[in-house]
Design a protein that fits this description.
This protein is an all-alpha fold. The chain is globular, with a radius of gyration of 17 Å. Helix 2 packs antiparallel against helix 8 and helix 6 packs across helix 8. It is built from eight helices and no strands. It has one domain: AhpD-like. Helices cover about 65% and strands about 0% of the residues.
């Protein structure tokens, strides 16, 4: 007979360390790829907003600010289509982020994919897509594991 943990929460990272290592390896590969680090953080913020992951919003807001991202650009992120503070590449990345994150509503539109492919070379496009996939994994883990926002401290350094 199998018994199950009846505690309040399970630390899935400790309970299945090989999977945690695999997701961390994906995260590191994405972070070290050719994608612009500001786009990297904007993508993570936007997906986290869509998914309602307060822990990840807190983390990526703090990381973006530590790198030198402006408050204006972070405040405008939920309304990026109407804002004029984002580049063409950032807009393409945000559109792809929304389409992939909301994939249950329909497949990624061909024009969204084409815009992203026009703005990024193959390696950077792949880096972007894996980054979007990775943040969606992290969001689902953080939400399900009841990760609490507000305690994260960034270790990023200014880039601007």
């Amino acid at each position: 007979m199998t018994t199950h943990n009846t505690g309040e929460f399970v630390n899935v990272y400790d309970a299945f360390p090989e999977a945690n290592k695999a997701v961390l390896a994906l995260e590191m590969a994405c972070a070290n790829g050719p994608l612009d680090p500001f786009i990297f953080e904007l993508v993570k913020m936007r997906a986290s907003q869509i998914n309602g992951c307060a822990y990840c919003i807190d983390m990526h807001h703090k990381d973006a600010r530590a790198m030198g991202e402006t408050e204006e650009r972070l405040y405008m992120l939920p309304a990026w289509r109407e804002a004029t503070v984002y580049t063409e590449a950032e807009r393409a990345a945000l559109a792809l982020t929304e389409a992939v994150t909301l994939i249950s509503a329909g497949h990624v539109p061909t024009d969204v994919e084409a815009d992203a492919r026009r703005c990024f070379d193959d390696e950077t496009y792949a880096n972007l897509l894996f980054t979007i996939a990775a943040i969606n994994v992290w969001n689902r883990l953080a939400i399900t594991c009841h990760s609490q926002p507000g305690h994260y401290r960034s270790h990023k350094t200014p880039l601007r």
